[in-house]
Amino acid sequence: MTDTRPPTLRLVLILMGAAIPGLIAATLGIPETLAAVAGVEVPDEPWWVYAASIVQTTAMVGLAAWGGAVLAPRVGLKAPAAEALARRQPVGPALRPQWVPGLLGGLAGTALLVGVGALAPAEIAAVGERVQPSLAMRVLYGGITEEVLVRWGVMTALVALLWRVSGRHGDRPAGWQVVGAILVSALLFGLGHLPIVSAMVETVTPSVVAYIVLGNGAFGILAGWLYWRWGLESAILAHMGAHLGTAAIAALLG
Known about the structure:
The protein is built from ten helices and no strands. The chain has helices at residues 8-38, 47-75, 80-86, 92-117, 122-130, 135-165, 175-191, 194-198, 206-229, 232-253. The relative contact order is 0.16. The model has no long low-confidence stretch (mean pLDDT 90).
């Protein structure tokens, strides 16, 4: 039987290449954002501090990209456009089935973020009035880097783990195993936002924790479902679209 899997190393490099601009944007943008929240100047760090941070996070992305590239074909998950590129095939046909789900997911994500934003605790609302992360950081890091890390890396590994511990019945994991991985990875996605939020607010109250975990987790469920049903790129499109949509609404409202 012909092996239809894309070359692993090439796929890993493609996904890392897509994720690294977001890492750079976040590494350079987070100190500026935190300084703006605190009302102080950006710390004058030496260049090697930023370089070390980028190297560290690049290693994390590399591990996620490699883990997903190895495990995704075994559990029926995919990144069709990246895989086509790795095979040196046209990307258009691989992206075409993902456009509509991705765009609809972006609209749903925009509505979700706007709706959740209206329920923000006072601590979060106060921070949002003072400063917002740059659009480049939200779109590149949130839209691409986080999807490679959380969906392609973490969610894929969780699907494989649940399938393994349950005895690997059938050729592919059962639906409940994928759903379980979506829910757990969404929870981890929400929890992953707490460190940066704790640096922005004076007190991390239960309402702040619930807002951050549940709000981001809800979007994580949407992105995980898109990844499962259509492919990684549909989740990326939805995540990028949600940030672009909320930015457009904020600009219109002035």
